[in-house]
Amino acid sequence: MSTQTTSSGSGPSGSGYITGYLLVATPAMPDERFRRTVIYMCRHDADGALGLVVNRTVEDMTEADLYKQLEIPVAPGAEARPVILGGPVEMQRGFVLHTGDYKREETLSLADGQMGITGSLDIMRDMSAGTGPKQALLTLGHSGWGPGQLDRELVDNAWLVVPTDLDLVFGGDLNGKWGRALAKVDGRLGTDPGLMSHLSGRA
């Protein structure tokens, strides 16, 4: 069974902001950089928005490669996990998106404490030692929008908004995440992305 989570007071039914939700590119997405992407929204307010793509990878880089570059002992299983390309902004900057069972002073708590984002090397050291979060994505870069920019893109039919599903965010089937996210918009539409093209951002 999937675990869905949203942030109270945010999203289409609350303030109109979608912090803690998933942003899903529609087939009408005009920006090639974001076609077929699923983005976890870390922040969305009057000052703009920031999110992390969860279904694209940094080419030819595993988590083990990143550990070695940073001279941190490689965490168990890291050789088989790709580094996620969080977006086209600050692509040399790393973030770890993780479940809420892990928290440091610098951790930004999300989704009523069920998720978090940490940007320090300490979390990688803890993951290496086996004391990190239960589930995590190592990302480079992020996706950013200026004030009102994301709101306009939603109106322009570039994105759909769905509740966050931890299994979808942290699951290993990267190629299947976009279709699974689209299917959550409306069960009547099944998994046919072509049927989604007339929809604007909605949950």
What does this structure look like?
The chain is of the alpha+beta class and 203 residues long. It has a single domain (4-196), classed as VC0467-like. The protein contains five helices and eleven strands. Strands 1, 2, 3, 4, 5, 6, 7, 8, 9, 10 and 11 form an eleven-stranded mixed sheet that branches. The longest helix is centred in the first third of the chain and has 7 residues, at 63-69. The chain is globular.
Strand and helix order: EEEEEHEEEEHEHEHH
> What is the molecular shape?
globular
- Class by alpha and beta content: alpha+beta
Largest sheet: 11 strands, mixed
Structure annotation, total helices? 5
Alpha carbon gap, first and last residue = 20 Å
CATH superfamily: VC0467-like
In total, how many domains does the architecture comprise? 1
CATH class category label: Alpha Beta
Question: Considering DSSP H and I runs of 4 or more, what fraction of the residues is helical?
Answer: 10-25%
Low-confidence stretches: 6-10, 188-203
Q: Average pLDDT value? A: 86
